[in-house]
Amino acid sequence: MRAIRSAVPVDRAPRVAAPPVEPYRIKVVEAITLPSAEEREHALRRAGFNVFNLLSEEVFVDLLTDSGTSAMSDRQWAGLMVGDESYAGSRNFVHFEETVRELTGFPHILPAHQGRAAEHLLFGQLAHPGDIVPNNMHFDTTRAHVLHVGARPLDLAVPEAYDCEDRSPFKGNVDTRKLSALLSGPLAAKVPLVVVTLTNNTGGGQPVALANLKEVARICREHRKPLYLDICRWAENAYFIRTGEPGQGARSIREIGREIFDLADGAVMSAKKDGLVNMGGFVATRDPGLASRLKEDLILFEGFPTYGGLARRDLEAIAIGLREATDERYLEHRVGQVRFLAALLDAHGVPMMQPPGGHGVYLDVGRFLPHLSPEQHPGQALVVELYREGAVRAVEIGSIMFEDPSGKERSPLDLVRLAIPRRVYTESHLRYVAETVARVWARRDSVRGLAMVEAPERLRHFTARFAPLVG
Length: 471
Ligand code: F0G
Known about the structure:
The protein is α/β, with parallel strands linked by helices. The chain has helices at 37-46, 74-81, 91-104, 115-126, 140-148, 176-184, 210-222, 234-244, 253-262, 288-301, 312-324, 328-347, 365-368, 378-390, 399-402, 427-442; strands at residues 61-62, 108-112, 132-135, 152-155, 194-197, 227-230, 266-270, 281-285, 360-364, 392-393, 395-397, 415-419, 450-454, 465-468.
């Protein structure tokens, strides 16, 4: 096969400091190949210009998601071998439960097959038709589960979260003034719980400050509302607190995490992110009454409470992965990779959400393709172009993911996320991605829009089909 070479001449390549050296070495490799331009064109047509419909073999660098795409460590793979596949009382569940309790301090832990299963259980118990569920920003499945029970998701992020050029360090913060007003106002009785998502995936993977979480917790206590955290990227969030919040620099990730969890009544977690596994999640709570109701639902929807829809060996891998994700050297490299990719793109002048967040670089579609109107689906057009240019798979996080099917609520942010899987790609992969994006940036004026030709009502970004607009 021909070697894949950079199309950006070396003397014009931006000078950017290298990311931290990988704190691991590679034991197993998986071959990837770059399909030809004709193969990519053919794949796009077959996929209805929706990259969720591509086969992974048609993709060269896959930045669709950081979820469930981590490389497991040798210890995690070894953990699979000590899987105790007993239906009830498996030793892997005991290890999993001990680990989650030790890290979070939550007494009641219910495993689930992934984050959205945990959301299904939690919102199924706590939210009801007509309720309002505030969050800094709901991610797609969280929003869908709130809507599924007939409640209304309400995003209460700080104003700077919506400004890609604002470089404030904690743009995942909740607007506490708005939260206070909601909980003191006429709609307060309709709010069954308050949710905060760490980090804010919808808004660029931006972290939430510890000080902000403390204020949110104080407001929730004052108004007697339970506070639940979406902690799928909590270790990355804690790393930003440690490195960016005054007075936190000497504390460990676990200490910071524990202080965060102590502020909350419970949490949902997709372990597919900071659990460093390919599948799994949990709900945790301090409320024993809620825990027993959740347990009944768990048995109905997921499985017996000592496996929750997972193979027991998966619980072992989660227990090990949750600890590995708190290693500061790992986190420094992880967040360093995101910053490195952002710096390469910045050197080319590519517009993006600043500062870069914890798990990916989010391109600012409005400034990337200003000549396309919202009806031409510029975010999706950019995703298609990145694949067409270099078989890089990204995802639209904007009006297609979040627009109300009636077209009334357009997403205030239009982003394309380049999510970096954990422990998977190296510096040269990231350089390849940056060069691919830079080439699309260089010919951005020629990028055409797309028409959405097929769309389901819910979570349409996964299955919608598109067609190129001509002329
Ligand atoms: N909460 C957040 C903040 C998420 O980012 C996700 C998933 C979930 C909940 C649901 O977890 O996938 O295990 O059911 N986010 C993925 C992504 C899919 O690509 O960002 P899940």
